[in-house]
């Protein structure tokens, strides 16, 4: 639209330049009437009359030309204004048509989730919170649209390797509007370390570790897309330009299809509090956090149930994050879920969201 406006301005100047130039020429070419200062000189009255009439005629023509020029300028200005309004209307119509598929797709998503009972909206992010209660478990779904990739980050407990903190503390310390727990961890020497490959600000915290057993990486690329899966060499992960990411197990969906869940993770534990994350075709994110009163397999959701839930909601890729007492969902300064430990568990990595 800026380029079209410049083109219209050039058209306006080109249209009016000839008329303005003509007026200037008429004014410059007229020679002033000169009378000889000599007392002996004599100019006949007929010649003076003729000269006066000639000057008067030229002034009349200049006046008419000026009126015509003013009228042309006015007409050109009106044409410019109408053209600008038309182009603006066309631009708005095209913009609306361009966003229509996105709106329709989003309506299909929300129709399956229900009505959001809480919403956060800014120029960087939109978050909608839904309740899930299919009958066998209770939980929450948080749909996230990242308008700016920097609206999602990963925080390290206390910003120090080996340190852990609750998701609420991480949210408050970084000034985030929402947060969930991220990858798994291993305890040692009185410290709590992120499990396997962990990326912060584009750098590997403890180096790259080839995927082993059922572990998988999940994070965000520099372009704001959810990335993840098994990686057996660093170059294959580097190609995705990870900004941050953590590791846990297992992958639930890949390219819109269910992936086999290892038998071990189907029964150990069978049911549990869970935190899973996935993405839609339009790169919106979906986080599901399920409540449970213990980690002994008698409450919460199974991985198959969440896999089917994400699949039925149209999610393309989905990954299981750390669960049990680690499952945390923070929004607008409060704990949304009911932690099975009775309080939030300190963990080493958190995914945070910013307004």
TrEMBL record:
Transmembrane segment boundaries: 12-29
Annotated keywords: Glycosidase, Hydrolase, Membrane, Transmembrane, Transmembrane helix
Taxonomic superkingdom: Bacteria
Ranges of residues in domain Phosphodiester glycosidase: 174-354
Gene Ontology MF term list: hydrolase activity, acting on glycosyl bonds
PANTHER family per record: N-ACETYLGLUCOSAMINE-1-PHOSPHODIESTER ALPHA-N-ACETYLGLUCOSAMINIDASE
Protein name in UniProt: Phosphodiester glycosidase family protein
Organism: Paenibacillus lacisoli
